[in-house]
Amino acid sequence: MAEQIVTTAGVDLCFEAFGNPADPTVVLIAGGAQSMVWWDARFCALLAATGRHVVRYDHRDTGRSTGSPAGRPSYTAREMRDDPLRILEALQVGPAHLVGLSLGGGIAQRLALDHPDRVLSLCLASTSPAVPGSHVDLPPPVPRLAAALSHLDPAPDWTDRDAVVTYRVEAERPYAGSLGFDEPRTRLLAAQEVDRTREMAALMTNHFLLDDGPPPDALLEQITAPTLVLHGTTDPLFPIEHGRALAAGIPGARLLPLPGVGHQQPPPPLWQMVVAEISGHTGRARFRP
């Protein structure tokens, strides 16, 4: 299916679906400052081939979804968090499986708490507890990450496409794990994102300006959706202890460490394994009211 745009309450949300709509729906939720292209279309096709209806979408201020001026997001964190439900309603899909990466994993956790009747299962990748749990204090990002990101200043001339693509590549480089940084593939995806996005300055900033503290009475232990945790063993932003805390805090959750993976979507060498795990997890999951 080609990209489509659904308009709800004056907001445009761009999405793309793979596979048979009659199959169980799996929604891929990207991280902060990521459009849907980082869920590689080839990965989506592999997952769809296992009998899944796979949906990826552009967050607000990314890709072809509604945009805001840089530094002034025109929406709240709650509104952005509910966007997957709006897309499911447009597709006339009931409960679905959610796969969330980083910020997308936080969105998935909150949806599972706020709308348990809409979530069949969770797959949480490269993320951290979005609400309090029984975990101990978790380690901060590794020191090299902040040092590497500091070299991204100043921002590029946002009207210079090639400079913006290079800037986007360099923004991803520090998050790679010990498997290494696949620059050619990253540059290809970055170019797709730049060419599809209304305002790259807004993409790179606005999500991080949203204030969304956890509700005071929400706990990880209250998540009832069957949960699979995917976490890179060399994630520099959320060291693997974050993944362990999720698996320990959510009843029945299972942790699958990804050797050598950083803070990123699973890289191509692990696609077959990850697709098999997500397909198996979503096949076993059944709605628990």
From TrEMBL:
SUPFAM superfamilies tied to this protein: alpha/beta-Hydrolases
Domain AB hydrolase-1: 24-263
Keywords tagged on the record: Hydrolase
GO molecular function: triacylglycerol lipase activity
Hydrolase found in the keyword field: yes
InterPro entries per the UniProt record, alphabetical: AB_hydrolase, AB_hydrolase_1, AB_hydrolase_fold
Hydrolase as UniProt keyword: yes
Protein name: Alpha/beta hydrolase
Example of a GO biological process term: glycerolipid catabolic process
